[in-house]
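Um, can you check?
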Amino acid sequence: YNRMLSIKEQLMQKVFFSHSLKSEKAIVTEIYERLESANVSIWSHYFDIPFRTNSDKAEKSALEHATHMLVLLSKKGVKEKSSPISEQVKYAIENGKKITVLQIDDISIPSEWGESYQLIPMLDRSKWAGQLLQLAAQLPKTIMDTVFSALEDEKRFDELLNILYSKPEWFGYS
């Protein structure tokens, strides 16, 4: 991931995973788990909304705080009337988020999305592992991965300590 970013910038970056609410749970799970195992700081409503939490509010907050968006583009997702994908992409475009579209079916990208995204055709499932590993290298990492990378460089470690003392809530302390 981009080591030119400051530790603070790295800690604040998150990926919002936009996908159909009712389709392809196995595919969503595979992509999410592969990216999470590569230490990508990823959020999905399937995995990251705590029990008894207002899901709309949690999803809106996650999208607002995300710096990146992954969009799973599939036939089922495009056909699903209640899918929030297009609305989420519109919000991401309007707010300057980095958008990556994972195209798993041979379908057209909605024209209202313009050209403000990176397209990764993932039509051959046998190549997904390599494609997702390459993608993970471009996406924001988890707090722990950022911390461990800071340990390798004295200047970055000092920056991390300053953040830890000034923003302990970022690390779960109050």
Remarks:
- The beta strands are 15-18, 42-43, 68-73, 98-103, 118-121.
- The chain is about 45% helix and 15% strand.
- The longest strand covers residues 68-73.
